[in-house]
Amino acid sequence: MTERVIEVLAGTTGVVLAVADDGRLHQLGFGSGLAGRTPDFPVGIYPLAYPTFGEEPTREPALRITHADGATSTRLTFASAVVEAHEHGEVHRIALVDRVAPIGVDILLRTWPGYDLLETWVEVVNFGGEPVTLHEAAATAPAFAASSARLTHWGGGWAGEWSETTETLAHGTKVLASAGGVRPSLHLPPVVLLSPDGSATEESGSVGVCTLVWGGDARFAAEVAQHHQGRLIVGHQDRGAERHLDPDDRFETPHALWVWSEAGIGPTSRSLHRFAREQVVRGGTEIRATVANTWEAVGFALDDAGLAAQVDQAAAVGAELFLLDDGWFGSAHPRNDDTTSLGDWGVDRSKLPNGLQPLIDHTLAAGLRFGLWVEPEMVNPVSELYKAHPDWVIAESGRDRREERNQLVLDVLQPEVRRFAADVVSRVLADHPDISYLKWDANRDITEPGSTALAPDRQSHLPVDRVRATWDLMDDVARDHPDVELMLCASGGGRSDLGTLRWFHELWTSDNTDPVDRVRIQWGASHLLPASVVAAHVTHWGLRPVPFGCAVALSGRFGFDLDLVALSDEDRDVCAASAATYRRIRDLVQQGDLHRLASPVGTTRGAWAYRSADGDRAVVFAYRLPDDEPGNQVLALPWLAGKDLWAFDVEDLTPGRPSSAVAPLGAATLSWPDAAPPSASVWLITRR
Ligand code: GLA
Questions:
Q1: Residue at which a domain ends, from 251, 280, 309
Q2: Domain extent at residue 66
């Protein structure tokens, strides 16, 4: 029999599969440089493309099913492969079937060659007459030769988002998983970097980035078996999430995205950023406004005069959007702290006697747009909503309702609850048509994961179905209010995934705004997210010098979150000058190509740059962090090597520094800041 080879190529990223004589599907290659790959050995020697429980008894499976007759092993054989075009590439559907049980498993691969990106997922269908139990179904499970393979991943919990770890994979299985269901990426954003031979740097080596497009818990299992056989199994967290497939049911796994590069990590990030901006994020190619938020400024202490004064100062420093955070609502119980009122979305008249409108009018008159904070998926037990509908929450009958941050999670699987949550937003916007921005927060995990919308024997569907119901809710809101910008937030960066971002314009990266920590947080986030969505606000966290805070915030989606009225004149001038600087550089920061120059992870210096697509302009950020010693002062700009450097000018835009003259660049290097750390430099490089 001639072996059937299936080649799926998306620019530098691809997979080549082949059907063995016995019908099993194997992987001939995964990664880059695969065009024309044919088997050098009998196909059966190559790793399985999608390993199942029972097939490779000593290896991790990607799929585990208990069949209707109780059998627990699955053996998949090839049935068919079809290719269809989509606007940006091709979609391959490779259909496999179990050798005995009436189960179909389709592997789907959508190519995005313009982004070197492969999107992949799996669909499991029960075409028998009895229910089956799907315990695990990964989105992707490529094999790789793991000679000193290294895996980079991030996480760290509230205020510790995006702490970076790179580790050499040892024999065995390393499992990384998020938890809690609502704000999983606080603990583990769903993205990893895999360097099979461990040699990848920013600019060289073979490396793949993989992200799960999923708003719930994710699971990455990196296995190294005998003879350096590696495999990365990526999917939604299956623990506690068994799926019962009734006859004709089809389960589609979350999708995974892969970008592979033979030229180091940099290209994987640039491709993902471009993909995110052009194909995922709402309005992703538009320029985002500079935001002044109230949370770190005044917290729950809201009053008309105080807020109007903040608006005036926000206008004075050059902010473009005033965001009223938590604390504005609670008709029956004033929300003076986080113990009451989620669910009661009327304006708290004890704080704002004439409602929001006077403040909105004042904001618009000052030339700013107005934004508002909501947390539509949550309820405080101390609320009118909970009094009326105690059964609207996620809970298990006869069990405690554990509170976190004094609140419970509304059960959006119940249609009337989902309608209520959508109406919360619609009512606020109908009452205040001048609101053009909402910050959508979600501040607790799920415990006692039960829903009255699911049958008793289907409760384990909640972790997946709740994510989909929440996405439906977000979709309703986005569709009903297409002109309202949405910021995604979950106790900071708890929802940093490219699935949920489809309904949002940007996200709150972390509640930790200490600019020293933010250098590392924003560095980490850049491995998945374009800077256009990485909201970075100047605050007083860490009590760092305001110019340093501005320099760090300028490298993301810039904004303020501090009491602008109480600022010293000197700091206010720095903020105003920084906002003006941002207007000059934000097209580069938000839409340019990221070049990482020096890693702040495990070091005391970090630097990166954003470059225009034509290479004519770039903005460079360099940060020296506490404990940094004066030392090597040379900061290399690799993309300028070999260029006519005298054709470029450089301008020092560092916040707090007297404005400098434009001077010829003359070298493909800059100098690290001289000032004692924490210190920063910001330069704009322009072709003359
Ligand atoms: C969460 C968010 C903060 C702020 C508060 C308000 O913690 O991450 O930015 O909005 O809620 O309660």
A1: 280
A2: 4-280
Domain contains 397: no
Q: Is residue 648 part of a domain?
A: yes
Residue 2 has pLDDT above 70, yes or no: no
Ligand 1: centre distance to CA 495 (Å): 13
- Indicate whether residue 294 lines ligand 1 (CB < 6 A): no
- CB 489 near ligand 1, within 6 Å: yes
Structure tokens at 607: 């630097």
511 catalytic per annotation: yes
Task: List, for residues 222-274, the tens digit of each pLDDT value.
Answer: 999 999 999 999 999 999 999 999 999 999 999 999 999 999 999 999 999 99
* Residue 527 in domain: yes
Close Cβ partners of 147 (under 8 Å, ≥ 6 residues apart): 196, 197, 198, 228
Q: Which atom of ligand 1 is least distant from the CA of 494?
A: 8
Contact 611, 312 (CB under 8 A): no
Q: How far apart are CA 222 and CA 205, in angstroms?
A: 19
E strands, 215-298, in order: 218-225, 229-236, 243-245, 250-252, 255-261, 291-293
Domain count for the chain, please give it.
Answer: 3
* Same domain, residue pair 565 and 617: no
Q: What mean pLDDT do residues 162-182 have? A: 98
Instruction: Confirm or reject: Cβ of 441 under 6 Å from ligand 1.
Output: yes
Pocket test for ligand 1, best of 291, 325, 405, 507 (most atoms within 8 A of CB): 325
| Distance from residue 492's CA to the centre of ligand 1 (Å) | 7
Q: What is the CATH number of the domain that holds 610?
A: 2.60.40.1180
At which of 260, 280, 300 does a domain end? 280
**In this structure, are 80 and 142 located in the same domain?**
yes
Q: Does residue 410 belong to any structural domain of this protein?
A: no
Judge if 36 and 173 occupy the same domain: yes
Task: Give the model confidence (pLDDT) of 322-366 as tens digits.
Answer: 999 999 999 899 999 999 999 999 999 999 999 999 999 999 999
Sign of torsion, CA 224 104 250 122?
A: positive
pLDDT, position 658: 83
Q: What residue type is assigned to position 322 of the chain?
A: F
Please report, for the chain, how many H helices and E strands are present, in that order.
10, 38
Tell me, in angstroms, the distance from the centre of ligand 1 to residue 440's CA: 10
Active site residue 423: no
Distances (CA, A) of 32 to 9, 38, 258, 275: 9, 14, 11, 18
| Mean predicted confidence (pLDDT) in 5-30 | 98
Q: What pLDDT score does 659 carry?
A: 77
Q: Can you give the pLDDT at residue 1?
A: 45
In this structure, the answer to whether residues 218 and 350 fall within a common structural domain is no
As a whole number of Å, the CA-based R_g of the chain is 26
Question: Do 327 and 269 sit in the same domain of this protein?
Answer: no
pLDDT computed for residue 632 by the predictor: 87
Task: Tell me which of 325, 511, 514, 517 is the catalytic residue.
Answer: 511
For the CA of 491, the nearest atom of ligand 1: 8
The verdict on 61 and 132 lying in the same domain is: yes
The predicted structure's pLDDT at residue 132: 98
Ligand 1 atom having least distance to the Cα of 511: 8
Assess whether the C-beta atom of 411 lies below 6 angstroms from ligand 1.
no
Q: What is the mean pLDDT of residues 674-678?
A: 95
CATH number at residue 106: 2.70.98.60
**Summary mean pLDDT of the chain:** 97
Give the CATH number for residue 514.
3.20.20.70
Residue 417 CA: distances (Å) to CA of 223, 236, 392, 668: 41, 25, 6, 58
pLDDT of amino acid 660: 78
Q: Are residues 523 and 660 in the same domain?
A: no
Tens digits of residue pLDDT in 354-403: 999 999 999 999 999 999 999 999 999 999 999 999 999 999 999 999 99
pLDDT at 3: 66
- Asked if residue 298 and residue 272 are part of one domain, the reply reads no
